[in-house]
Amino acid sequence: MVVSIGPVALTDGTILGDLAPVTTVPTVSDNLFSEGVISTEVVGISFVPTTGAEDEPEGELIFGDVEGSSKYTGQITYTPKETDYWGITQSISYNGIEIMASAVGVVDTGTTLNYMPTDAFNAYINSTGGIFDEATGLYEITEEQYDALDDLVFTIGGTDFPLTANAQIWPRTLNANIGGEEGKIYLAAVATDPVEDLNFINGYVFLERYFSVFDNTNSRVGFAATAYTNATTN
Ligand SMILES: *[C@@H]1O[C@H](CO)[C@@H](O)[C@H](O)[C@H]1NC(C)=O
Ligand SMILES: *[C@@H]1O[C@H](CO)[C@@H](O)[C@H](O)[C@H]1NC(C)=O
After folding, report:
1. CA–centroid distance, residue 24 to ligand 2 (Å)
2. Predicted structure pTM score
3. Is the pLDDT of residue 3 over 70?
């Protein structure tokens, strides 16, 4: 059985054996809510950029009210939850040009990279000058191209969530983990064939830079800046 904080519908079919007619599993936050431990069914997720160092800061999961947490700065921007997954609407811009018009996709704590629709990804890669690298399956850029990177901006609920140049690249200390070479720079994004309601996936690469809030009670997803939004850890 998978212990999950995602939507209950996704647990359908995960129960084996003779427990029928039970087909879905309440999530940890469902149980905390039904047992009265938390008064709103909300999970706040603080991921921090990882470098593999032993003493690096740790992330945090917050069950219940996230207001006032020190894990984010400024305001939380909320946007409606659009699908059974943690689906949201966003647009994406690079270099001041909208490369993905407003579309529905998902935020996923179980996905490492950022997935963009093929057209948007091609426009982005083209602007960066990245070259496909067989060993990692990612696009490699030079030091000069890295220095010239513009913000990659995700616009959600009317608020811009920029990924800085450093936030757009794979952590260089972890290059060997993906078959990369020491000192090289790889863009931490890949293309996906867009389908209805799944035009993009915002994975760790995004979630390490923005605090995220999964609010089942109000059927909404929230994001806020953190101390790591602009950090140069990669
Ligand atoms: C990349 O840029 C070139 C030159 O501006 C253009 O001809 C080409 O269509 C672009 N390719 C993509 C995939 O956007
Ligand atoms: C990140 O840097 C930009 C540009 O300097 C600045 O406008 C923004 O407020 C910073 N964000 C955070 C969360 O520090």
Report:
1. 42
2. 0.89
3. no
